[in-house]
Amino acid sequence: KYKLQELQQLDAAHYLHPFTDHKELRNAGSRMIVRGEGPFIYDSEGTEILDAMAGLWCVNIGYGRDELADVAAEQMREMPYYNSFFKCATPSPVQLSAKIAEIAPPNIEQVFFGSSGSESNDTALRLVRHYWALEGKPEKNIIISRQNAYHGSTVAGASLGGMSHMHKQLGGAVPNIVHVMAPYAYELAEPGESDEAFGLRAARTIEDAILAAGADKVAAFIGEPIMGAGGVKIPPASYWPEVQRICKKYDILLMLDEVITGYGRTGEWFAATTFGIEADTITTAKALTSGYQPLSALLVGERIAKTLVEKGGEFYHGYTYSGHPVCCAVGLKNIEIIEEEGLVDRVRNDTGPYLAEQLAKRIAVHPLVGETRSVGLMGGIEIVKDKADRSRFQPGGSAATKVRDHAIANGLMIRATDDTLIMSPPLIWTRETIDLAFDRLLVALDLAEAELAS
Ligand code: PLP
């Protein structure tokens, strides 16, 4: 059905891929992924690959779900599109906003839809500034974020993010965004510093930034509950309570980016619950539709919602596809399936703890592995040269890339970012799927170890 060489030629000639070195792509040629079924994806040559990344942190209910295809087709036939500007609405975004408010933390009242996580963060940035302007404090405008954070690829998303290589290409970031330390103890804790002490120290860099700017100039702090693209960096338990305390003390809004963690990944519907955080905004996307349609939702807490309604006035912001009826119908069905199949509970009570146990038992003991960590079905594996002094093979993560390439060749799709291997599988994974993934990963680790030793 698919002619690989022909597709690769067209691909190299015309398709500008996201986050891709096109010189490398032209030499290597893309692998064509043509089908998915349950936890597996298949390429044009029929190779079966277990997808430990759920696409890109999103396909939570797995591939090949007819229920979502049926609901999309039905909605397209009935009403493919209508806008929700100018006091109009279609039913599915109304129903989905109510459903999200039901499963979200108790303070969440309203939901704003977009098509991507980046758009959702753009909206959140504009909304918190709009909020302070409505409150008569437009000078409260600075957003505090963190080094190595990822908040998307639009200009505002990349400005909010803390990835230096992205900033370099921006040619001028959105002003009034400052970045503080990431809460990553394995690399940034001082010798002898406990995780708890490090967590407090990392949180207090936010307080330092507030004091440096003046609290009357700071609008909000934004953070991923667990940094995802930055390498599944799980903060110490002391971190989030201290961040919350600091935000309350200086009257700073707390913005959570749950584009990765939303809709069950951590064993709760939202990681806000996992970490006990009360956020004023929560950005979500990806698993809202399990990736079957592009859809994001910005969850808005009662503090901002109350001001929007009481003060009135138009928020001059919105997208043609805000509340797209087909995407929202698919989102509703997706949440229904997650509920019916008990996937969030399964992650919390069964597969999440099993993943942590097996990471420790089978993977952490490998000579190339310095640390394993996970929350729910989100895991990171740190590749090191020396377990004792935590030194790396060479900066830039080429050792992790070697493991990744062997893993893919051996039927396991896993991602490498710097020296970290990342896992974020569909929530339909079972203990047996985890065992299969680690059988394949161990082969890849051994092959990479042999190569790195030679
Ligand atoms: N925020 C986080 C935490 C993400 O991981 C991502 C994407 O990976 C985004 C925002 C951007 O989402 P999108 O790629 O849908 O624009």
Automatic annotation (TrEMBL):
Name of this protein: Aspartate aminotransferase family protein
NCBIfam families assigned to the protein according to its UniProt record, in alphabetical order:
PRK06105.1, PRK07480.1
May I ask which residue range the UniProt record assigns to the signal sequence?
none
Q: Which CDD domains match?
A: OAT_like
Q: Is the keyword Zinc assigned to this protein?
A: no
| A GO CC term attached to the entry | cytosol
Q: Which family does it belong to?
A: Belongs to the class-III pyridoxal-phosphate-dependent aminotransferase family.
Recorded hits in Pfam families, A to Z, give: Aminotran_3
Q: Which organism is it from?
A: Metarhizobium album
User: Quick check: keyword Nucleus in the entry?
Assistant: no
